[in-house]
């Protein structure tokens, strides 16, 4: 079940990228995190991120249609490169909990970034919708692997809804992301260990 993505992705939401373009996108994503740490989501602009990254605003808008798109890309990159827990020797519940914990804690040490991600992922921008779909598929696949072959599709959907609800709840300020991870584990156990 372990997977680690070590090669850089040269694909953005909008198109495949050359290595130079991929480097620009990476600089913009890193700059977005820096700006978020200082100003939070309300103060984030694509122009401010472009300035921090040392690129022109027109260049930034070539890759990102909105600040929501940019922040959704930050989360997608974190998720895509996060190592999937090795489930060897773990039972089904432990495997699922490890996956949920890993996803929930991706941004736990960056509250400004995590709050921005929740806001961004709720956006209606078509590029955000595309990334939201990719994120959903990745989470679906990780949970499906953790549940194992022949799992109940309704159980998988319940776990996906649990995660989405927890993300929304944390984004609304009803607890921190570390608290979210703990509550998510408790709730998932109730679902997975029901008679």
TrEMBL record:
Top-level taxon in the UniProt lineage: Bacteria
Keyword annotations from UniProtKB, A to Z: DNA-binding, Transcription, Transcription regulation
HTH tetR-type domain mapped to chain residues: 22-82
DNA-binding region: 45-64
Keyword Transcription regulation annotated: yes
Record protein name field: TetR/AcrR family transcriptional regulator
Species annotation: Rhodococcus daqingensis
